[in-house]
Amino acid sequence: MAESGKRKIRLGMVGGGTGAFIGYVHRIASRLDGDYELVAGAFSSRPAVSKESGRNYGTDPKRTYASWEEMVAKESARPDGIEAVSIVTPNNVHFPRPKRSSRPVSTSSATSR
After folding, report:
1. What's the whole-model pTM score?
2. Selected residue with higher pLDDT from 79 and 107
């Protein structure tokens, strides 16, 4: 349960793999109010780095993806799929990812509600 008493929001992350400073900042920020739980990610454009990052962050290996497209497709099919996405890729590639996702998800900062 979140600090508010409500169920935590299931968060996915695109980018922010092991060693990426801004990914670390966003993971910390998402935990500050206790309302988010990182449950899935495509943490790097390099599949091996994404898998390693998922292990480091404690996400279920079945929910650590080789690409953001795979994450969107598979999470959209899950009854417990992600509800929000934190995009921590370089700024010039932020927008195409949510724009092309197959279902609407929140792309707000993890700390704003």
Report:
1. 0.79
2. 79
Q: Alpha-carbon dihedral of residues 21, 25, 26, 27, nearest 10 degrees? A: 100
- pLDDT mean over 42-65: 96
List C-alpha distances in Å: 79 to 41, 46, 75, 76, 87.
17, 27, 8, 8, 22
In this model, does residue 109 exceed pLDDT 50?
Answer: no
Name the token pair of 77: 């099919």
Residues 61 and 55: beta-carbon distance below 8 Å: yes
pLDDT at 35 over 80: yes
Q: Which residues contact 73 (CB under 8 A, 6 or more apart)?
A: 102
Kindly tell me the sign of the dihedral angle through the C-alpha atoms of 92, 23, 37, 4: negative
Among the listed residues 92, 90, 50, the one whose alpha carbon sits nearest the alpha carbon of residue 69: 50
Cα–Cα distance for residue pair 6/33, rounded to 1 Å: 12
